[in-house]
Write a structure and sequence with these properties.
The complex is a heterodimer of chains A (277) and B (866). Chain A is mainly β. In chain A, 13% of the residues lie in helices and 34% in strands. Helices cover 27% and strands 18% of the residues of chain B. Chain B has 31 helices and 37 strands. The two termini of chain B are 46 Å apart. The chains are: A mainly beta (277), B alpha/beta (866).
């Protein structure tokens, strides 16, 4: 019976339909007793942030999503001193807009940023409801999911085999010190840093294809390899954040070492010349 | 899901199917949406579910692509963009015009003060007064100068309406009235294709490649997709929705490589690119030439194909190899011009030659809307030709307007059993109409008014054939008057066309004795009018619509009004009816048909009347056209031409691919700006807009400007839920939401500009303010800004606060003999704005009130707002 939401960042095109549909549903519409209206601007029960990764020309964008995790052990529920926050049978965590007294305990208790907002005009805390008012009216999914064009959002029953399969590929976002909150929102494709660059034969002024680039983590010694394509490009993806030393090798060429490279964030280390032996 | 989603009534809501798309041509509807209404209010707008009232297997003949071990199926819902979902904010916008208005210092019987247009405020008047003034002015102008003194600006783009005619409802009325001068919207977004490729490969009426069944062909046969100045995550949204996005993800899944060639990491490149090749704006011609040089040098092209399919190859080769001008067009030659390293050009040329490659375009895209756009457009086609255009997997594909102008060869998606067509019931203006003897290409309107005369070639309509480009025209036409009155129902000239500041000056010229505008929102050119009439949005009207651009399934549906018209607004068609009544032309104008009769007539002539009855259509609320059984058999793109060019010739004079254009040889043999054989044209008599020119010493940055991500041209600029998105607006220290300009960190640093700063973009045509968005998504020394921002003049014709970059784009056309506009790829410089100094200098402009989240609205322009 419990519902889960899976957000696949690898097929999110950043159209913001989810954020906008949430506003279309909740701004100027009163869905009491589930939710009162959301302010027109500045608050996002379903928020997207553009994460621009890398440097010219090795750049990509991952669209990050922030939404209430509807935790099974939600710290906001016991934090409320008037008992306004409850969990429904379907897993949705709801702040009862009539019971809320604006004490803001939940804002402090929630481990996730940008999830619970405070509506000054109504003096209540507000957040995503999984569109429970629609689920109660026969809908099978919230507005954000219906509005998503690419299938990046999937909402369903945790016992459904298809959903279980998807959840198995996904991971929750857990905040330090709050690893046991049991979120009901899962993500696929959470970004990890990349090191990218391009290898070229300086004498011939040609891109070097087929060079093997090996990155070694300075602390752990873990390695990762990539092979350059027709443009000499390599992308070492999904790295653990850290410092790496790189070796570029290709038959007939002198090995080229470079580093240390700080891969705390995505980085393009630029064009690297190699020389024939 | 669909069954549950269709539930209505439980909460007393009513669900209506509406076309919420923005192309504004009757056969081009899309973005079918479900609008839930209750108690006279719009509750929500959401995707429309095809299977609401139909069984997909039984009723829709679903299509699917099976390729490389994977299957792609269309979605069971429409893939509408965010501004369709947010459309109720547009309906209830603070910029909505509520009642007729008159400029306070315009007196038809006294001082008209044309010099104050764009500056003066407005007062409320009654409909009777407004119509009396308009009809009085029409009759006076006609008596004084003749009817051609009235210029009617009524271009497409706007809400998609059929019977209620968004734009152009007055054409039929003015013909009955005795004539007028028509502003012909020169074919925009197609500049290079229209003025260039029609001479190379024909492909009437637009000049883009044949599209039939290309989505399936790519899926099965293509190895490499080159997205060239194409952003399928932006440009198609308002036209057709987001199927291109889903397809692009799937093409990556099945191993089709995607390379994006563009100065900016556009929204599609940001999520789909296997490689981004940044190229300096409007230098693609040099890049294509270097690619062909590599192919000629190494013999890596299809010589046999060219022998049977092309003419003029040897002349082109002579130019490329430097035999003509002593300059071989090598990768090393091109690299400093286009900003792409020579070794990357070589790698690109080699990969293209080695893989089945389709080039993908997003209509114009910025890459094909610059000075001399004919050259990169033709050179792209030459590259395709050299590798065997039309072979499986090797075509030019579009990510937009699948099915344009009702032409089967434009149907890139699986063919439907029937294409609904509502042209017969359409009451607006169509792109294929002309108006002999009196018309002016839209690009020439400011020149015509400011200089009093001008002449040009071609452009008698947006769909005029190639031969029309050789016909000479002039303004005023023989026996016709100069312009003394302007009627606009599509008031977005300033922010969408060439050198908007010139247009502002033209509309303030004393020759323009009267200007009136009808529009739902007070924005852009409306701020120049003497009289303004309020139009309602489509959600306040009954109509009929087809959804034919989605690429998924075609739809036909009657449209019922969702809410009552706001305040005193009427539809464009109703306004034309009111005017025709006063002019004594009512019967002639309406043909005796009421709006409900026109709607039913639309159904009867839709081509679908034998597939569903009128009663069933109304009962179900919509009709899904099934896919044609034989859709897989439709030959893809140029396949027939590739197989047998004699049997399936192109519409060029020789029927072949003309590397040397025979028509240009005959009519413009000495044209240096559009020569018979396409070339790299750095500068000429029309333009000096490249790096390395003298002008670039003064204005060292190149601007790239694409269609906007968060609006459709000038539409949707007032939607608060979009304006709070980081890439939509940048809030300045004064609380005003500025239009973003993208700067590379190195470009910003050189100028001491920080993220969020208000900056001035300027050249010799004026100044535009913007908000700095510093990002790695743009290459150094290039800046990116969307066109279409709402004009908010500080000094009309000189300085704009709203970010309307088109106020300072080149005033000259594509080239001397091609009257397209050049709106991307031009020179500016940028500096941090001294806001305090500007405020001291122009206090009135900065005292105008604005909505903190919706931007400039009615408030700033009205005396005594209620």
């Amino acid at each position: 019976m419990g519902k889960v939401l899976v957000i696949d960042l690898s097929i999110c095109n950043g159209c913001y339909n989810c954020q906008v549909a949430c506003k279309d549903e909740h701004v100027a519409n009163d869905w009491s007793p589930i939710a009162k209206p959301q302010p027109d601007t500045g608050q996002f029960w379903n928020k997207i942030t553009d994460k621009v990764r890398g440097q010219v020309p090795k750049v990509m964008v991952t669209y990050m999503h922030t939404i209430c995790m509807h935790c099974d052990d939600a710290p906001c529920i016991p934090s409320c001193n008037v008992g306004a926050i409850y969990k429904r049978d379907d897993g949705a965590v709801i702040i009862d807009p009539d019971k809320c007294r604006g004490n803001k305990m939940c804002l402090a208790a929630c481990p996730y940023p940008d999830v619970i907002y405070f509506n000054d005009a109504l003096n209540i805390a507000q957040k995503c409801t999984f569109c429970a008012h629609l689920l109660d009216d026969g809908w099978t999914e919230p507005r954000c999911v219906d509005a998503c064009p690419t299938g990046a959002f999937t909402f369903g029953d945790e016992d459904d085999p298809k959903i279980r399969e998807l959840v198995a590929k996904a991971e929750p976002v857990l905040m330090p010190g709050h690893e046991d909150v049991k979120p009901r929102v899962f993500f696929i494709g959470l970004p990890k840093p990349f090191i990218a660059g391009a290898v070229f034969d300086s004498e011939a002024d040609e891109c070097t294809e087929g060079a093997v680039v090996t990155a070694t983590n300075v602390e752990s010694g873990a390695t990762c390899t990539a092979t350059t394509d027709g443009y000499g490009d390599f992308w070492l993806r999904d790295l653990e954040p850290g410092t790496y030393n790189l070796v570029i090798e290709k038959d007939g060429y002198l090995p080229e070492k470079t580093g240390p490279v700080d891969a705390g964030e995505d980085i393009n280390i630029g064009d690297i010349a190699v020389w024939k032996t | 899901m669909a069954e549950d989603m269709s539930k209505t009534g439980a909460t007393g809501e009513r669900t209506l199917v509406r076309d919420i798309s923005f192309c504004g041509v009757p056969e081009n509807g899309s973005n079918a949406s479900m609008v839930d209404v209750k108690d006279g209010r719009i509750i929500r707008i959401r995707p429309m579910h095809y299977d609401w009232k139909y069984d997909p297997e039984k009723d829709m003949n679903p299509w699917k692509f099976e390729a490389r071990g994977s299957t792609f199926e269309p979605s069971m819902k429409t893939l509408i963009p965010p501004y369709s979902i947010a459309y109720k904010k547009r309906v209830y916008s603070p910029a909505r015009i509520r009642y007729p208005m008159q400029r306070v210092d315009f007196d038809p019987d006294g001082e008209r003060n044309p010099q104050n247009r764009g500056k003066s405020k407005y007062k409320r008047i009654s409909w009777d007064t407004a119509l009396d003034i308009i009809v009085g002015e029409m009759e006076r102008i006609k008596k004084t100068y003749g009817p051609t003194a009235l210029l009617y600006q009524c271009d497409q783009h706007g809400e998609n309406k059929v019977v209620q005619a968004c734009h152009g409802a007055g054409r039929k009325l003015l013909r009955a009235w005795g004539g007028f001068t028509l502003q012909i919207r020169q074919p925009d977004s197609w500049e290079g294709w229209w003025w260039g490729n029609k001479h190379l490969w024909g492909c009437e009426p637009v000049g883009q490649g044949q599209q039939s069944n290309l989505l399936y062909d790519i899926s099965r046969n293509t190895e490499l997709l080159l997205f060239w100045g194409c952003d399928q995550e932006t440009t198609p949204w308002g036209w057709q929705g987001q199927l291109p996005s889903r397809l692009s993800y799937w093409w990556s899944d099945i191993g089709i490589k995607q390379i994006y060639v563009c100065p900016d990491l556009n929204y599609a490149a940001a999520v789909h690119a296997d490689r981004w090749i940044p190229v300096l704006p409007n230098t693609d011609a040099a890049l294509y030439l270097a690619i062909t040089h590599r192919w000629f040098t190494r013999g890596t092209y299809d010589k046999e194909y060219l022998k049977t399919h092309a003419v003029g190859v040897e002349k082109f080769e002579a130019y490329v190899m430097g035999e003509e001008d002593g300059v071989p067009k090598t990768p090393e030659w091109a690299a400093p011009i286009c900003g792409v390293p020579a070794r990357v050009i070589k790698a690109l040329a080699d990969e293209w030659a080695g893989k089945r490659t389709t080039v993908v375009i997003g209509n114009g895209g910025p890459g094909i809307r610059g000075p001399y756009a004919t050259e990169p457009a033709r050179l792209q086609a030459i590259c395709l030709a050299m590798q065997g255009l039309g072979k499986p997997g090797q075509n030019q594909a579009k990510m937009i307007e699948w099915g344009l102008f009702d032409k089967p060869d434009q149907y890139a998606q699986p063919k439907p059993l029937r294409v609904p067509n509502l042209r017969s019931a359409y009451t607006g203006g169509h792109p294929d109409e002309t108006n002999h003897p009196s018309f002016i290409p839209k690009t020439y309107v400011p020149k015509a008014i400011l200089e009093g005369e001008c002449d040009w070639y071609g452009c008698e309509s947006e769909t005029a054939p190639r031969e029309n480009q050789f016909v000479h025209y002039k303004y005023p036409a023989d026996g016709c008057s100069k312009i003394h009155m302007v009627w606009t129902d599509s008031p977005s000239w300033i922010t969408c066309w060439n050198s908007g500041n010139d247009y502002v000056r033209a509309m303030r010229h004393p020759d323009i004795e009267f200007m009136f505008c009808q529009h739902p929102w007070l924005e852009n050119d409306a701020l120049l009018a003497d009289i303004i009439l309020p139009v309602n949005t489509k959600l306040e009207e009954d109509d009929i619509a087809g959804d034919i651009f989605s690429g998924q399934y075609n739809l036909l549906f009657p449209e019922h009004k969702c809410i009552e018209p706001l305040a005193e607004s009427f539809s464009d068609y109703e306004i034309a009816v009111m005017l025709s009544e006063r002019l004594g032309l009512l019967e002639e104008y309406t043909g005796g048909k009421t709006i409900p009769e026109l709607i039913k007539y639309g159904y009867e002539t839709s081509r679908c009347d034998d597939l569903i009855s009128w009663e069933e259509l109304n009962e179900k609320g919509y009709y899904v056209v099934p896919t044609a059984d034989d859709w897989e058999d439709v030959p893809a793109g140029f396949y027939n031409f590739y197989k047998d060019p004699k049997k399936y010739p192109l519409s060029t004079p020789t029927g072949l691919l003309e590397f040397e254009a025979q028509g240009l040889v005959e009519h413009f043999p000495d044209d240096k700006e559009r020569p018979p054989v396409p070339k790299w044209v750095a500068q000429g008599i029309s333009h000096e807009e490249t790096l390395g020119t003298d002008r670039a010493q003064k204005y060292p940055l190149l601007v790239i400007s694409n269609h906007p991500r968060w609006s459709v041209h000038s539409q949707h600029e007032d939607i608060t839920w979009l304006r709070e998105i980081e890439t939509c607006k940048v809030t300045g220290p004064d609380g005003y939401q500025y239009h973003p300009i993208w700067l590379h960190p190195s470009t910003a640093q050189k100028r001491g500009i920080r993220s969020g700063d208000v900056v001035s973009i300027f050249n010799d045509r004026g100044t535009v303010l913007a908000g700095a968005y510093i990002t790695e998504r743009i290459m150094p020394d290039v800046v990116y800004i969307d066109h279409g921002a709402k004009w908010d003049p500080i000094v009309p014709g000189e300085i704009d606060r709203g970010g309307a970059i088109n106020t300072i784009v080149p005033r000259h056309t594509t080239s001397k003999n091609a009257v397209g506009h050049a709106v991307s790829g031009f020179l500016v410089d940028i500096e941090k704005t001294d806001l305090e100094e500007l405020k001291r200098k122009y206090p009135e402009a900065f005292e105008k009130p604005f909505h903190p989240c919706a931007g400039p609205g009615l408030e700033a322009c009205i005396l005594g707002v209620e």
